[in-house]
Every structure is written in structure tokens, then in C-alpha cells.
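We give the chain.
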Amino acid sequence: QVQLAESGGGLVQTGGSLRLSCVASGRTFSMYAMGWFRQAPGKERETVATIGWSGGTKYYADSITGRFTISRDNAKNTVYLQMNSLKPEDTAVYYCAADRNAYTIAQAMRLTTVAYWGRGTQVTVSS
């Protein structure tokens, strides 16, 4: 059974930064694309950023491009999301996710291809 454990969420002021981490266990981490998704109250879950199995490909949603950076450390089974210049509209529960298919690139990962989800970590940006 794959387990994903997020950490790093919290309360921050507009313009601040946070770094989310997600540690994976239960299968060969380095074979699978990983992603960060978020869900704000009353809204659908959306893709924030994804990273391919090797780390060589990355995808970012338009709303966060230039402010967030996704990365992974396969030796530590960990994927990160560095969030800078945070805005109130970034407030949401952020979920770590693992793709169901091995050896996929970032652009191929979608909500519909997620096999495993973390429990989520709350990010709140105050104005």
C-alpha cells in the first residue's frame, strides 16, 4: 500500500513563502510521476504542479507559474513544492499525489491518472 505524508502547510501573510514536503512509501518512488493538487472551499480540486518520474519534466498551472517550484529527491522518496509570493487565492488544502503509471512525464499526469493521495495539508494566506 502506497502512503503519502504531506507536511509544511500553515498560515502565512500575503507575499510570504512556504515549502511543502511529501514523503512516499510503499512502492518504487522514482518510477512514478508525482504532483501537487489543491482544493479551496466550494471549489473543485485542481492541478497545481506535476513532475515526471525522473524530475526532467515539470508542469505548472498558469495561476502559479513563476511563483511555485516543484522538485523531487528520489533518494529521499520526497517531492517538494516551494511556494513564494503567496496570495490569498492560494488558500486551500494541498494534496500530494502519485500517478498510477510508471515512467510518465509531468504533462501526462492528470487528476484522472492519480492512483494515490495524501491526506492534505492546509495552506492559509492572510491578506
Observations:
- The CA atoms of residues 17 and 84 lie 4 Å apart.
- The longest strand covers residues 92-102.
